[in-house]
């Protein structure tokens, strides 16, 4: 059952990843993600169905447009395969349970937001708000189906805690934390808190650890100025992903801490 779920989730991830490519390209430009049809950015020829098969079409076309032979960024198959991998891992971690849909939506949203943040230093509200509403609604539905409302209560408290913490940091030092990170905080707090307080702590710790390592490394290599903003949303996404997938394994050497956090 688990193997089949992982495989089907990965296949679904390929399809969703193809849509995420549209989202990543169009949302920062303020364009619709449903119309018009996808087209080559160079010659504007609409992409045929046969050339829109995730990963495979890019390989068959050798990374070039069929019409004008302009290069197609390798980001497209990477996003598709990355979404497939993310979906497979989340399905492996969560299993055949009602909350799986919520965490798949969370994974897809965080992947799109992370890439947009790298390219534009933005976490668009057009993605953050709908993703937050959908994930929270699905998790509330899961609590109802499982009759385990304590998950949603803890999630709501963690969402409020993260919103308060991130909002305070943003007010005190807007350069340190952007408004987009504040808007994203409730989604991450609720989703991770729904799993456990341990996941919230691991997610926050990993995000800041990875962010610090990358920031210091870029400063040492003179690739980043001290006052230059960094895409903190990327590190939040990494922290959340690690927390969702590996919190039990990370805390296994410290059973007392895991029991304390819950």
Describe this structure in words.
It is globular, with a radius of gyration of 19 Å. The protein folds into two domains: 1-96, no CATH class; 99-262, no CATH class. It has helices at 2-26, 56-60, 75-94, 100-120, 125-146, 149-172, 179-195, 197-220, 232-251, 255-261. It is mostly helical and 262 residues long. The model has no long low-confidence stretch (mean pLDDT 90). The two termini are 28 Å apart. It contains ten helices and no strands.
Oligomer: single chain
Strand content: under 5%
Biggest sheet architecture: none
Mean model confidence by pLDDT? 90
Continuous helix count: 10
Shape: globular
How many domain modules? 2
Structural class: mainly alpha
* Poorly predicted ranges: none
Estimate percent helicity. over 70%
Nearest-angstrom radius of gyration?
Answer: 19 Å
Number of strands: 0
H and E order: HHHHHHHHHH
First-residue to last-residue Cα separation: 28 Å
């Amino acid at each position: 059952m688990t193997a089949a779920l992982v495989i089907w989730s990965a296949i679904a991830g390929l399809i969703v990843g193809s849509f995420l490519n549209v989202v990543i390209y169009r949302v920062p430009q303020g364009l619709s993600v449903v119309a018009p049809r996808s087209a080559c950015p160079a010659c504007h020829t609409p992409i045929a169905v046969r050339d829109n098969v995730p990963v495979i079409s890019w390989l068959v076309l050798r990374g070039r447009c069929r019409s004008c032979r302009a290069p197609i960024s390798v980001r497209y198959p990477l996003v598709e395969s990355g979404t497939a991998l993310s979906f497979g891992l989340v399905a492996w971690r969560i299993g055949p349970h009602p909350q799986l849909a919520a965490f798949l939506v969370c994974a897809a949203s965080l992947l799109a937001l992370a890439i947009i943040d790298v390219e534009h230093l933005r976490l668009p509200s057009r993605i953050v708000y709908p993703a937050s509403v959908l994930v929270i609604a699905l998790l509330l539905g899961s609590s109802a189906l499982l009759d385990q409302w304590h998950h949603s209560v803890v999630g709501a408290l963690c969402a409020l805690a993260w919103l308060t913490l991130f909002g305070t940091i943003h007010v005190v030092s807007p350069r340190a934390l952007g408004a987009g990170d504040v808007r994203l905080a409730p989604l991450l707090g609720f989703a991770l808190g729904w799993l456990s307080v341990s996941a919230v702590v691991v997610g926050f710790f990993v995000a800041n650890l990875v962010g610090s390592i990358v920031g210091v490394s870029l400063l040492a290599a003179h690739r980043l100025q001290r006052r230059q903003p960094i895409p903190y949303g990327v590190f939040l996404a990494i922290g959340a992903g690690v927390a969702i997938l590996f919190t039990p394994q990370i805390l296994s050497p410290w059973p007392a801490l895991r029991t304390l956090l819950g």
